[in-house]
Amino acid sequence: xxxxxxPYQKDAVKSVIRHFRSSDDPALIVLPTGAGKSLVISExxxxxxxxxxxLAHVKELVEQxxxxxxxxxxxASIFSAGLGRKDADEQVVFGSVQSVVRNLEQFNDNGxxxxxxxxxxxxxxxxxxxxxxxxxxxxxxNPKLKILxxxxxxxxxxxxxxxxxxxxxxxxxKGTIRTTDKRFFKxxxxxxxxxxxxxxxxxxxxxxxxxxxxxxxxxxxSRDPFGRYSEQELNSLLQGKGRATQQIIRQVIKExxxxxxxxxxxxxxxxxxEIQGYLPEGQAxxxxxxxxxxxxxxxIHAFKEQKLxxxxxxxxxxxGFDAPHVDLIAILRPTxxxxxxxxxxxxxxxxxxxxxxxxxxxxxxxxxxLFSPEIGxxxxxxxxxxxxxxxxACGHExxxxxxxxxxxxxxxxxxxxxxxxxxxxxxxxxxDFRYRFKECDQCGAENDIAARKCHECQKPxxxxxxxLKEALNLKNCMVIRCxxxxxxxxxxxxxxxxxxxxxFDEDGAxxxxxxxxxxxxxxxxFYHNFGKHALINRAEPFRADSISKIINNHKKFRKPDFxxxxxxxxxxxxxxxxxxxxxxxxxxxxxx
Length: 592
Ligand SMILES: [Zn+2]
Ligand SMILES: [Zn+2]
Prior knowledge:
The structure is a single chain. This protein has about 600 residues and is α/β, with parallel strands linked by helices. The protein has 4 domains: about 5-190, P-loop containing nucleotide triphosphate hydrolases (Rossmann fold, 3-Layer(aba) Sandwich); about 205-360, 3-Layer(aba) Sandwich (Rossmann fold), CATH 3.40.50; about 385-430, no CATH class; about 440-590, no CATH class. It contains 14 helices and 30 strands. The strands form 6 sheets. The protein has a 12-stranded mixed sheet with strand order 4-3-5-2-6-7-1-12-10-11-22-23, sandwiched between helices. Strands 13-18-17-14-16-15 form a 6-stranded parallel sheet, sandwiched between helices. Strands 28-27-26-29-30 form a 5-stranded antiparallel sheet. Strand 26 (about 475-490) and strand 27 (about 495-505) form a beta hairpin. One zinc ion binds near residues 391, 393, 394, 431 and 433. One of its GO terms (molecular function) is ligase activity.
């Protein structure tokens, strides 16, 4: 069979060639399930001048990739003990990482120029892992070895992004920096979004039911710093919800009447067992983390053969599981990231004969949009949605969590720093525009709100808790735990117009500050002492050149969390306003 690459597959191959022509840095490409990554592998194998090793972590994947490759009338070796073949003679070799690492002497060939790692989210920075042993070995024979990773899930809870730099596929747009932490794969050179796949009918559309009759409310549960829930808390919340669970499963069964295969994602193992008990006997099975391999294979086989209609699982089947006939996904668990949500829904989007769509019912109030970008941090609250915030310095279009009003106007966003990067002479540098920042007392440089030390002059940043503690201990100091702020027009004793800003604490105490705006110097002082920190959207140019303009735009400003003032002879002088406070003291409950 002669194969024909789809347009995006051609683009993926081109981006790989382009990248490795100028760099030996390991790179990855992101293709959703169903995008036909084996065709991309085949094309790379076909055009490679040197030898190619394609690694996967399980024999099934080795076998599957190899079979696809040979179906295109190409020849390749298989090196996998599990498959009973240890052959590395052909130009292209498909191997399982465990078998290859145990037989490195059979790979003493400096001809390997390309190493492809399938499901590369399994590669860590861990130096002693099997993957690294293979990589070190091949690199010792060929220091210019190119390493390409393939994955459908470049963002994982608890790990974060698998790579540092996301290249833009649009020449006119900037790339995005995902993390400054070291990653084995430095660059993501190609990513195909799920929306493209559905729009172009490479995947089936999803039909969503967001507000089912009964649903769980997980919003009060606490989460760890990675945004994950604890199994214990989930169990205790679900224990009293037997009735709801029963009703939910009744709805699932009803909706499944004309459906072929339903996957149910439960919150915990106990929850999954309970759910299974409510499903029709003989038609449902359960797969959990410790289901023995053989039993698991048998269950999955029966499900794929459609001898079972319902498959209940707890997060073990979110990736790498493929049953194209699945046309109902029921989500009964809180889903901590957009990526995870997309992975879950993605289980039901494969094309299959006579399949029109996949019904997705979210019983957990996750309310994610299937096509949302991954923001890379936990959703701060239920009101937050992904917003696009352009950078005034470099033009990069940032995706942050934010809050919009009914007109769709931005009320607040949680971005701290522009995520665009600039590339000069092969060096990538993050744009230094900050939406939220702490100013260095010594040099005035803008620092991240969590910075310990100024990035310009290295002076330790004074901890806001320290400032509050000192102020609270001083007799002539006052701390306003700011619960509200007003901005009004006012006049001084000479009758000159000015702005009066009043900060209130919860008990009604207040401090005020005043700004005149007649001269450029006064306007500058307003910006430095107030606007720079209080403007909600610093990215939007705002010239504070008249009092009426400030009054009419008072909604563009936000209140600080704390105001520290010192008693002068006749008035309280504001020493400091703390915005974006993160620390031990309680903030005021918002009055708004
Ligand atoms: Zn920027
Ligand atoms: Zn400094």
